Amino acid sequence: MTAELPTPDTTLRAMQAIVGANACRSGDADTQAYVTDYRGIYRGQAQVVVLPASTEEVSRVLQWCHAQRVPVVPQGGNTSLMGGAVPDDSGTAVVVNLSRMNRVLAIDPVNDTMTVQAGVTLSAARSAAEAEQRLFPLRIGSEGSCQIGGNLSTNAGGTAVLRYGNMRDLVLGLEVVLPDGRIYSSLRGLRKDNTGYDLKQLFVGAEGTLGIITGAVLKLMPQPRSSAVAFVAVPDPAAAVALLGEAKRLSGQAVTAFELISRPALDLVLEYLGNIASPLQERHDWMVLVELTSGTDAESLNATLMEILESGFSQGLVLDAAVAASLSDAQTFWRIREEISDAQTRTGGSIKCDVSVPLSRIAAFVEEASARVLELVPDARMVIYGHMGDGNVHFNPLRPKDQPARDFLTQWYEPVSALVDGMAHAENGSISAEHGIGVAKRDDLTRYKSQVELELMWQVKQALDPLNLLNPGKVLPAPGR
Amino acid sequence: MTAELPTPDTTLRAMQAIVGANACRSGDADTQAYVTDYRGIYRGQAQVVVLPASTEEVSRVLQWCHAQRVPVVPQGGNTSLMGGAVPDDSGTAVVVNLSRMNRVLAIDPVNDTMTVQAGVTLSAARSAAEAEQRLFPLRIGSEGSCQIGGNLSTNAGGTAVLRYGNMRDLVLGLEVVLPDGRIYSSLRGLRKDNTGYDLKQLFVGAEGTLGIITGAVLKLMPQPRSSAVAFVAVPDPAAAVALLGEAKRLSGQAVTAFELISRPALDLVLEYLGNIASPLQERHDWMVLVELTSGTDAESLNATLMEILESGFSQGLVLDAAVAASLSDAQTFWRIREEISDAQTRTGGSIKCDVSVPLSRIAAFVEEASARVLELVPDARMVIYGHMGDGNVHFNPLRPKDQPARDFLTQWYEPVSALVDGMAHAENGSISAEHGIGVAKRDDLTRYKSQVELELMWQVKQALDPLNLLNPGKVLPAPGR
């Protein structure tokens, strides 16, 4: 098929005619930032990188690529961990980067909705909502770079899913350019619409394999009137789960975040940050960061938090707790949680497993998987943290201090990931709770999905993208594997 | 194609061999309840009605029907308003009624999930959750008869969507028998799972045209610790929307229900109920039923409700208000709201329009559409009520007192529905906010959906059901219309 493709020059000229010369990048130097993922793990090549300025331009780019059978890789902020947003190394693809489509088109504070182009960054979207005294609740580490189109295409999660759901739960309408250039639009801001198949669901979490999301109507929420945050030491993961149960029972739906932090995770981030001390005086093996938010007054919410902690103490679920006395305290607690990821990246040599299991199994899973990993790699630092309230932890064994990152990953990446993923799967869990599949876990799906699931995925793919032009090689393992 | 179909006798014997003779119904008398909708509007015919007892039986029924090219109509509680759950009058279909698959399979109170067979009624599901001190929040009028499978297939809404979302938002996993008998299952209870396309979304709201839902994992919530309910008179729909804004601002996400009730709707239900008086002393044109629920104490929540009402009074948004002083009061307020539908059915001659528009347009829509309908039918009783908080009202002009139902509907059903639906569509609204499409509104989609939307719906249908055997003639207008 490669032989039939237009030459890079032809493609470049065609793209220049559509988006303008200034919005095209070609040649290794100019395309490098777009064909390499931000961790530098996935490196590919592209014929051309285009940065369209409008949905109409995206449509014309896809029409041309469809007619010429040129594969297309959609790209937002390029913050994927799974290699889903960069092309393969065949050099055949056109990368369509949405960064220039970065306008907030409308905010309707009465309807509690915001209409955005796909290239708006998450932090820009959050700020725009805040300016209207509204909350857009998605909260993930890469918010300054990641874009709404990517958040939608990967069904992003983060630290407020417990209260507000994943990105899928936060979208009311989409505009999508289909593989042949047709434009599907449901940018209407309706909370109820049962007129046939809910087509937008197809594109959420599809990682750009079925079309390119160019716009969205997002849900906004009332801003909470008060929040209460505590950094809590617990004896073990089971106690953390039991404490969450108490928090839900005593606060209704006020629990917004419930994040687990293992001792090695805390040590790593405190060392990385340098100037910040643990909120707790003594060393503990397990901590949780709890956040409640509500529409009632702060006094009442703080009383609820104290009630939860006291109930936890009296049942032996809480060993110690620091309650944020100020916004600044709360920010420090959150900073400790949020910097774990960067601290790992700087340390290097971390095996990232992003698993989920039912909440009733998460404690046992963490204990058992840790024990099994430590049998294999006795000195691994068990950096385990994240969204326990959703049954999701980032389970990231880190290299022993005296082993170089490369050696550790070469030796242990495969066996440790397979072990952890396999154990999660055996608990009816997921091998990718929020990071998606990309190319990194594509072939693992043959082990962890049923035959029927794989067949259905291909039936959908072939229905929408029969020529397999949209983000080819991502998400779906080759049929018959 | 009919000529090639097996004879009813052959079909009956085949079905008997799969589900047993006791679980098959044939002949006009025995099938009547299954081929007629509950309002008696849609009457069809079936070769056989089968009541399978297991997913395996459903699978074998569908395998046989697929091999023989026999159309299949899935059926739950048969409470659809749109003719979506009964066969056409060709007499070719096998009706698969799920009523015998009515077991709650598991409740996991730590994971806050419940696994059910599709034939469990909504009220049974709610009761099972309650027995574990949990809430399953879907709340619709037909809860005693409707089934979870039907709730999922129609993405049911109701009076708690404002807080908890539609049925789509309440499901974590599905088991579905596909048109050829294959079984797709994701009954895993995960809140986060980004491993490829979220296939279950295909079947939610598809009205049984892509497969038969046989089981589901549903989300449970903490039971609220307190609730506060008020029956409030407002000057007009715009004031109601502004009051909702105040309620959201002052209570965060405590607003669980915000239901509009027009004067003719209240009159109708008070007359119907006989022994219940209006909660308000004076007559008003517009009322709203407001419910707050929260995890904090009742005192604090009542204070929030009073703060909302006082703010409303001071801004002229509230004319009068009755606050429920007891559970019994709250039940009475709710009964008034919930009996409106039955009161209409008994009165007869109501043109049911189930429309939604963005919340910022709902007040203008109600005013303008009412005026336009009254120009056509000056004595129509404007029964308008429902889920204003979601931008959704049941906009149901009712026959004048002195005009028989049949005459009124013959004369006005078509022009009034077309007027109201057209006005909703012009406001970027939906012509079926929660009732679905069935056969009743199928052909209207050609007017209100874009060509791309209709094409995509057919692309999905043909991918999953290429022989068009599952609930044929429902939801999708014939291509090329």
Q: What does this 3D model show about the protein?
A:
- The structure is a homodimer.
- The mean pLDDT of chain A is about 95.
- Chain A is globular and about 70 Å long.
- Chain A has 16 helices and 18 strands.
- In chain A, a hairpin with a 4-residue loop joins strand 5 (about 105-110) and strand 6.
- Among the domains of chain A are: about 1-95, Uridine Diphospho-n-acetylenolpyruvylglucosamine Reductase, domain 2 (2-Layer Sandwich); about 105-220, Uridine Diphospho-n-acetylenolpyruvylglucosamine Reductase, domain 3; about 225-340, Alpha-Beta Plaits.
- In chain A, helix 1 runs antiparallel to helix 3, helix 8 runs antiparallel to helix 13 (about 360-375) and helix 13 packs antiparallel against helix 14 (about 405-425).
- By secondary structure, chain A is α+β, with helices and mostly antiparallel strands.
- The longest helix of chain A is centred in the C-terminal third of the chain and has 22 residues, at about 405-425.
- At the A-B interface, strand 9, strand 11, helix 8, helix 10 and helix 13 of A face strand 9, strand 11, helix 8, helix 10 and helix 13 of B.
